[in-house]
Hints:
- The complex is a heterodimer of chains A (276) and B (245).
- By secondary structure, chain A is of the alpha/beta class.
- Chain A folds into two domains: 4-89 and 172-272, 3-Layer(aba) Sandwich (Rossmann fold), CATH 3.40.50; 100-170, no CATH class.
- Chain A has helices spanning 45-52, 79-85, 97-100, 107-116, 123-136, 142-146, 155-167, 185-202, 213-219, 246-253, and strands at 4-13, 20-30, 34-38, 61-63, 66-69, 72-73, 90-93, 173-177, 205-210, 222-227, 230-236.
- Chain A starts with a strand and ends in a 23-residue tail after the last helix.
- Chain B is α/β, with parallel strands linked by helices and 245 residues long.
- Chains A and B meet through helix 8 and helix 9 of A and helix 6, helix 7 and helix 9 of B.
Amino acid sequence: MAMLELENLRVSFPSAEGPVDVVKGISLSLGRERLGIVGESGSGKSLTGRAILKLINRPGVMHADRLEFDGIDLLSQSERQMRHLRGARLSMVMQDPKFSLHPVMRVGDQIAEALRCHERLRRRDVKARVIEMLEKVRINEPEAVARLYPHQISGGMGQRVMIAMMLIPKPDLLIADEPTSALDVSVQATVLDLIDSLVTDNGMGLMLISHDLNLVARYCDRILVMNAGEVVEECAAGQLQQATHPYTQGLLAAVPQMVEDRDELPVLDRSRWSGT
Amino acid sequence: MNALTLEGVNIAYGHTQVVHDVSFSVASGESFALVGESGSGKSTVLKAIAALATGWSGSIEVAGKPRSREHDKAFARQCQMVFQDPYGSLHPRKTIDTILAEPLQVHGLGNRNTRILDMLNAVGLDKRYRFRFPHQLSGGQRQRVAIARALMLEPSIMLLDEPTSALDVSVQAEILNLLKRLRAEQNLTYLMVSHNLPVVGFMCERMAVMQQGRIVEICDTAALRTGEFTSGYTQELYAASGGAG
């Protein structure tokens, strides 16, 4: 059975010319698998991720016909009930560790806070779990790192701390919103391998949101391509190269290759499909 | 003649030395890349050339003349820099027109109206954007403005610090094409910093690989096709970027 069911999701923002739909009726279902969502900035992929956690802030308005997670109807949950689900069962890794970590709180305390919100544990056990989690995300000398502040650690380490924070309550579904776009290629691979192994070991579901097609193809089972608030194509990760929609083909062609013979890169001709 | 020559350059911020004994030269009209991960000192080298990092020793020559440590006007006419983040490098309270006119004002150049219109045209921006503010433009359009500003003084050398890493792949393709076209039209010399090897392969002829403040290898970007590198670190970087290695 699917873990997450989403039907006809719409997110709109008010404007001078009346409400503008940014996400225009998306339906998806997700089991314990790895789903990738790709698209350019402004295609609504991040908003889709946030809407699943009901994290759309005013003045944005979300509306869906159905949003069910593991048999729970999320739409009818109160804000208080949502707080119990977020983090504990559904969690989200944000894009940039520089802005998503609390700047004046020690790294260890932040991770412990995520755990203490959802479980009652003795202080000694909390500390042990935090250290264990930091070890799991391959941080050397976890005791020392837990005492540092976010500005004292590098971007790659910050991203790993965020992943630790999100995984410590053992959620069922992890939504990763561009988890590596602030990182170097060499660190990128480490962080994604880490997410990948944690997801497979714990049997979690993963939703990976990114604008990097090749990266998503490498780490996911299934891919949704979004453009202007709509899903334009859905395919298995292995079949990305055979994509049929002109938008997907355009995105694929625009990436410079390691063996590059083209003098000029093809640019998306935005008039070939509706939207933007 | 070489557009840029660096001989045994060491760069320090305060007491911390970040770049050790860097030497390379870029021929006039060539496109040269500095590659490496964050913290390898590649941006610092650009900053030293542009006099944004002053604690350097060794010799930096620009178009045959030694680079002074101060800002100097003659140098600015020759060499300009484009920064990584188009969201941070444009003044938020100034219109595109004011941003592009500023270098002309500083250098007392006339004929500003036509120069600005020509430049907007050259970087592929419609002239209706001229009196808008940066926040009214998209990331790709802002990067075009940043490139236009750098080209206002008709420099011969451009320092590009990760010009596309803050942009989407589709917009990245547009900016890379633009940079390539401008280089062919105006016979520019590029020194580009990037951690994206395919982008370097597309834009540049030669590259220097940096690790922990030192250059570990200088090679032709043609090596990216075969993956034949002499240094182990380059091999690693190549494999991490998805190259067959």
